[in-house]
Amino acid sequence: MLYLHYSLRRVAEVVYRRRTARAGGVRISWLDWSGRGFPVLAIHGITANARAFDGLARAVGTGHRIIAMDLRGRGESDAPPGGYDVETHASDALAVIGAAGVDRCSVVGWSLGGRIALAMAALHPARISRVIALDPPLVTREATRAVLRGFWTRLTATYPSVDAYVERMADAALFGGRNAIVEAYLRADVRRDANGVVRHRVNPRVPELELTAEDRLPTAAYLAAVRCPVLIVRSTGPISASGDAVLPAEDARVLVAELADARLLDLVGANHFSMLLGEPPPVTPSIVDFLAEGE
After folding, report:
1. How many CB atoms lie within 10 A of CB 128?
2. Tens digits of per-residue pLDDT, 211-230?
3. Domains in the chain with CATH codes
4. pLDDT (tens digit per residue) in 43-61
5. What whole-number distance in Å separates Cα of residue 249 and Cα of residue 266?
6. Cα dihedral across residues 109, 110, 113, 116: positive or negative
7. Which of 44, 106, 42, 40 is nearest to 75 (CA)?
8. Cα–Cα distance between 273 and 28 in angstroms, integer?
9. Which residue in 110, 93, 54 sits closest to 275, CA to CA?
């Protein structure tokens, strides 16, 4: 179901609308950059939001219709008590593209979004043309979990204002530099509660539920069923220290070997965050070229 109420925003020359779909009674918010080209569904990472794709939408302009969803429990989507697993997220994503009037699309997924993209291609092959997976974890190792949990401390903190949150986070080294994309992404991270206190939109239990679901059903469970072309993009830079990569080189090679039609791109000099949140995102040319092969 697509609601008629939407907001209109501008990212440089690219206009998007915020729309809403329903997936099993859960309200899923999504952004629609209505380009003229083949539609691309964009799915963000574990504690991120749809504004992570502002830079990509700006870079591709009207060449593609970018549809970026807020996963359940993130951004402006509902936060039900359960459903934090890739199969449910894949169903939510189908509701979004259905609301958008899209029968078939390519999918760009970042981190957890990459796992969801692969699950969609495996479970719903008729709906997915191509997959671009940015640092999709084959297995989220303990060293990476420790770094991520340190980053997730922001989920329990409170802030006097949205500006205070942005000021605290925007200059973090992991973003690779402060820019307009990072700031817009961070502003979408938080909300002001009924008491006037600014808090992160993501409940800290949500990413832990995602990790538990990954342990039960890892990425490898879907690989053999994925038949469409896949581009795996691996950032070579660490999040904070050597050995904490979301997608280590050896895991990337396993992904490519297990997928029927896949290639690997090492994005040299970028880390897990700057690969998408740079201005412009350094991953953009590779995405555009890969998408063009299917047109």
Report:
1. 27
2. 999 999 999 999 999 999 99
3. 7-292 (3.40.50.1820)
4. 999 999 999 999 999 988 7
5. 9
6. positive
7. 44
8. 24
9. 110
